[in-house]
Amino acid sequence: MSTTTEPDREDDAETRRERLTRLFGGGWIFLLLIFLIALFAALRPMQFGSAYNLSQLTINAAILLVLSIGQTFVIVTAGIDLAIGAVLVFASVLSAKTMLWLAGAAGTTFGTTDASWLVIGIGSLVAVAAGMAWGAVSGWLVAVARIPALIVTLGTFGMALGLAQIITGGVDVRAMPERLVAHVGAGSIAGVPTLVVIAVVVTAGAAVVLHLTRFGTRVFAIGSNAEAARRAGINVRAYMIAIYMISGALAGVGAVMSNARFSTTTIGGHGMDNLTTISAVVLGGTSLFGGVGSIAGTVIGVFIPIILLNGFVILGIPPFWQTVAMGAVLIVAVWVDQLKRRAQERG
Amino acid sequence: MDAPLLEARGIHKRFGHAHVLRGVDFAVHAGEICALVGDNGAGKSTLVKILSGADAPSAGTISVEGRPVVFASPAEAQRHGIATVYQDLALAPDLSPADNIFLGNELMRRGLAGRLGFLDRAEMRRRATEQFARLGVRLRSNKAPVSSLSGGQRQSVAISRAAMWADKVIFMDEPTAALGVVQTARVIELIRQVKQAGISVVLISHNMPQVIEVADRIVVLRLGENVAEFHAGDVDVDRLIAAMTAGTPTARSPS
Ligand SMILES: Nc1ncnc2c1ncn2[C@@H]1O[C@H](COP(=O)(O)OP(=O)(O)O)[C@@H](O)[C@H]1O
Ligand SMILES: [Mg+2]
């Protein structure tokens, strides 16, 4: 028998170190966002604060936000989804091809088709279903075949992107339904860009599911200690598969948004989506070790690089500096997360 | 006299060629703390796994209040009122004590919200607080994640969780092995509280003075067989150690 002596702290209140790390771990990134907004608004109020600029900012954030929400679910379970951008490309290609075919337009058509809302609806469902299918593949390989998520999603990344290129011969589908482009891509609902409305709805829904439901609590539990969850009678495998399917489905939603916004598929444009979403999620305080995270944090994490880039452009700073700044901020974010963990585990 | 809460007769367990349990008899009666002691490798953990549904015996019978049962899983043992506090603390460290207590048995809101999967966090927290109060567990914080609690408090949360979902027997396999002196004393106090709450405890420990102090009855295993059984008042450390290291099998009860 070993009796390790550790200090008895049963009655201690929160220590000062814990309070500091909680503050820095949880809130500092939000303060950084506020600081950036205040800084750019003060330096260039006319340009940065203009309605046009603000609406551009949110439109730029919309697709990335939807993808990052899916990534948040995955990372909370201590997983990772590198396939996100490739699944988006695959889903957008399949969706665009389906809509072209249903509208009876030739595959080489440029510009827009006059496909009906029904066709657009079917095309959107195809995109979401394709994303879910890839998620099911990744999830099964991670949860049942027990292959590390990093490898699995690197594999599905290659497969989804490769298949998208095979389907299209590597050439983007450049004809989208007119209604999709006009009303979803460029349109607005009650003055708010439709893309932003979609992102807000997805984000609010995800926040409710993750933070208020049994499903969400169990997602946190699985990320925190999968073995404990299993012993508590939770079907961890089914949950893991569902999580990757959610991420895939949201990549499908992102595909529809991307098709609508750019009026073309963007096969070459999503190679960095996985890293961009991962850094947004981690910036937002979600731990790569799993078990800790929030949707609100991810929203902040998505906006920081976008506002940084926007501010640099407005100030005339070469935008490459944004890349440098973001790299540094990301490393600091993970460092703070680790400090926080260590301080807690000392307890 | 009533049938024991939980009774095992003639339990054998083989792992391939290793014959780890060789016809062990074991009973847990209502309202007692029963210690299970023995040298390393005596088969204590294996027996506990079998009695709590985590493993199946190669031969032998188990009955709950006199009725034969077969536990296919820990969940099934739990339905019979039997739970285990695992040696390695099966808690989710990032969740609050209340969320841990209700993990897998979450309370849902009433009506439509509940059917949509919404949790009743307030009620979960309220009942967890009630449970901690019942067992005399004082936590530094009820909302902070379990990982921020001390080792003893974490163990207390794990025991409170088991006591929430088992109303007959709780097995504790070396619950104080990793704890310091003060925290060990608190966990022992908690074990007494669990007994007070009407739940029997089976305690595995290598700390002989502790065992003699807290247990009502002590069962000694050696090399997979029963070698002695004592009432805690009638035994000292030397006799316990002698039985653990050199005891010979006791007469098997007729079955
Ligand atoms: N899964 C297993 N496979 C093979 N042998 C095992 C297994 N589990 C336990 N044993 C063996 O059974 C014996 C009893 O182990 P255990 O029940 O852990 O003893 P105790 O808890 O009393 O120290 C040991 O010799 C151990 O090596
Ligand atoms: Mg053991």
From TrEMBL, chain A:
InterPro entries reported for this sequence: ABC_transp_permease
Location(s) in or outside the cell: Cell membrane
Cross-referenced Pfam families: BPD_transp_2 (PF02653)
Record has Cytoplasm as a keyword: no
Keyword Transport: yes
Annotated membrane topology: Multi-pass membrane protein
GO cellular component, one term: plasma membrane
Sample GO molecular function, one term: transmembrane transporter activity
Membrane-spanning parts: 20-42, 54-76, 82-103, 115-137, 143-168, 180-210, 238-257, 278-308
UniProt keyword list: Cell inner membrane, Cell membrane, Membrane, Transmembrane, Transmembrane helix, Transport
Name recorded for this polypeptide: Sugar ABC transporter permease
Phylogenetic placement of the source organism: Bacteria, Pseudomonadati, Pseudomonadota, Alphaproteobacteria, Hyphomicrobiales
TrEMBL record, chain B:
Domain ABC transporter: 6-248
InterPro entries associated with the record: AAA+_ATPase, ABC_carbohydrate_import_ATPase, ABC_transporter-like_ATP-bd, P-loop_NTPase
Top-level taxon of the source organism: Bacteria
Pfam families tied to this protein: ABC_tran (PF00005)
GO MF, one annotated term: ATP binding
Keyword Phosphoprotein belongs to the record: no
Keywords: ATP-binding, Nucleotide-binding
Protein name (record): Sugar ABC transporter ATP-binding protein
Origin species: Pleomorphomonas carboxyditropha
Lineage of origin: Bacteria, Pseudomonadati, Pseudomonadota, Alphaproteobacteria, Hyphomicrobiales
